[in-house]
Amino acid sequence: MDNGTTEKPSRWARLIPMIVLLICFGLAEAALYIIALIQFIWTLVNEHPNEQLTDFGAALSEWIAQNAKYLTYVTEEKPFPWAKWPAIED
């Protein structure tokens, strides 16, 4: 019998993914600083940004946004590592 309610995961079941994602968020922030510094130095030498770092930076920024949305309860969709890494279109 359907009483009109949908099954929601336990609030406590969200705790472990949130802790993992908060730790990963800190690591991603450090990676962002490193990428920005490397890109700055790269452009001083080569006059254009490194394409691989640009692509990774775009994917990382998308993941950071997905992560923030999950951590702030905007979405129930867990980001990487529970989902695929964000794909960046050329």
Outline: elongated
Give the biggest sheet: none
SSE pattern, N- to C-terminal:
HH
Give the number of helices: 2
- What structural class do helix, strand and pairing data support? mainly alpha
Beta content comes to: under 5%
Structural summary, described in words:
The chain has 90 residues and is mostly helical. It has a domain at 31-79. It has two helices and no strands. The protein has helices spanning 15-46, 51-71. The longest helix is centred in the middle third of the chain and has 32 residues, at 15-46. The model has no long low-confidence stretch (mean pLDDT 91).
Topology:
Layout (H helix, E strand, L loop, with lengths): L14 H32 L4 H21 L19
Quick overview:
It contains two helices and no strands. It is mainly α and 90 residues long.
Task: Supply the key terms.
90 residues, mainly alpha, single chain, 59% helix
